[in-house]
């Protein structure tokens, strides 16, 4: 006896119309995935969420917090997946991971993001819970982690601070170390990443924080 697969409703809300169209085409290869609507406005997305309560919202990363707030206030059981133009989530990875099940970019091939959407749609939890053991062990969570350069934890801390635009003395004060130690970390970072100057390192660090440079 053939059992019909359960249909999973999806709302796509991203600024790029072209990206949304490509995503709809990709999702159409899964007969059980039903796109209820696509919108390129946060306010329209929030309105559709309240009206139709889709099971999954695929949203621009910068709109995820607004969707999460509405879900919390309305007690709506909808899962969030971030979909953006950058290679990874950069600085907002940790914040996004608290509310979203996964992330993929506009350039991700269908073979990468379709299994992610499949996993989210078949999750056994009633709602996403980043502290639950099933969430912590879920393979989709790996997509939320930005690729890290080959740096130690302390070097990475300095690298991110540089990317945020902080100077050497400010970084030293934040980390509770000497300016000389920060300078030593900076030289080590430049060496490991084959960067020729402080300006080049600042540019690379800033790009990583924005979600580029893998």
* Strands side by side in the biggest sheet: 2-1-3-4-5
CATH-defined fold name of the largest domain:
Rossmann fold
The CATH class label of the largest domain is: Alpha Beta
Question: Strand-and-helix sequence, N→C?
Answer: EHEHEHEHEHHHHHH
Q: Count the beta strands.
A: 5
Chart the SSEs and their pairings:
Elements lengths: L7 E6 L3 H11 L5 E7 L2 H11 L3 E4 L4 H11 L4 E6 L8 H5 L2 E6 L4 H12 L11 H5 L15 H11 L4 H8 L3 H14 L5 H13 L4
Helix pairs in contact: 2-3, 7-9, 7-10, 8-9
Question: Describe it for me?
Answer:
- With about 210 residues, the chain is of the alpha/beta class.
- The chain folds into 2 domains: about 10-145, Rossmann fold; about 155-210, Orthogonal Bundle (Arc Repressor Mutant, subunit A).
- Helices cover about 45% and strands about 15% of the residues.
- It has 10 helices and 5 strands.
- Helix 2 (about 40-50) runs parallel beside helix 3 and helix 8 (about 170-175) crosses helix 9.
In short:
The chain has 214 residues and is of the alpha/beta class. Helices cover 47% and strands 14% of the residues. Pfam families: GerE (PF00196).
Identify the notable features of this structure and list them briefly.
214 residues; alpha/beta; Rossmann fold; Arc Repressor Mutant, subunit A; 2 domains; five-stranded parallel sheet
């Amino acid at each position: 006896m053939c059992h019909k697969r359960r249909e999973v409703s999806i709302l796509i809300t991203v600024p790029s119309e072209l990206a949304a169209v490509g995503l709809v085409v990709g999702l159409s290869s899964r007969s059980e995935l039903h796109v209820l609507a696509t919108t390129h406005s946060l306010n329209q997305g929030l309105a559709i969420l309240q009206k139709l309560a889709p099971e999954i919202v695929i949203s621009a990363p910068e709109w995820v917090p607004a969707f999460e707030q509405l879900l919390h206030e309305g007690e709506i059981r909808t899962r969030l997946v971030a979909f953006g133009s950058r290679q990874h989530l950069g600085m907002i990875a940790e914040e996004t991971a608290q509310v979203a099940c996964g992330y993929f970019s506009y350039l991700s091939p269908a073979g990468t993001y379709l299994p992610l959407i499949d996993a989210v749609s078949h999750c056994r939890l009633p709602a996403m819970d980043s502290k639950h053991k099933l969430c912590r062990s879920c393979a989709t969570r790996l997509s939320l982690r930005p690729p890290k350069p080959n740096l130690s934890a302390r070097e990475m801390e300095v690298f991110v601070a540089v990317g945020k635009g902080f100077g050497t003395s400010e970084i030293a004060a934040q980390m509770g170390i000497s300016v000389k130690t920060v300078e030593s970390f900076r030289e080590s970072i430049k060496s490991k990443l084959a960067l020729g100057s402080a300006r080049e390192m600042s540019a690379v660090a800033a790009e990583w924080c924005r979600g580029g440079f893998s």
